[in-house]
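Model it.
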Amino acid sequence: MGQRHLRILCMTLIAAATATCGTGAPSQMPSLVPSQAPSPVPSPTPVPAATSFAEYAVGFCAAWEALFLAVGNPDTGSGSVLSKALDDAVAAKDGTAAEELAAEITSELESGRHAVAYAGGWPPAAPMMAQLDRVFVGFEVMTAAHVPVAKGEPGAVDPQAALERSGAIEAWTAMLEAYRALGALRPAGVQRCGDLPISP
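Modeled.
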């Protein structure tokens, strides 16, 4: 799954370190007789969002855990169980298996995007997490591109090219700059994200 670029992307962050509900148009209310009153319209439930570094860190780590589960460890290029199976399905031209695996990987990436959105609620991290969301979208695009290749569809786009065209690599650079900008806002002694070689 484009492990070469995944490795390049994540190694950069690892070296530096050792994601609304829209409201539509108001609905039309029926005409009311004077004795009637409109029923109160419930407000949309706010999307949970981090409000401190500690909460941001939880979302940050959850996002990276989802990325590792979806595509493996980008630093070592070892891949995940899912990404290796998808590569095997593509090599075997098994479109059905590729479709199923791509759906699983995308589900994991979407879980990561929810964590990214949560972490981005802490204002200083918002620019970085917005770019990280673009990176996740790029991985989703790359994942989806494996399916037509596995099915042997004419004109199928190479997954690596799909990743590059998505803008994920540019987003990574912007994310790294925003990550560095947090600087002193990080408390002393920040721990890594569990067993992952990443720190918030």
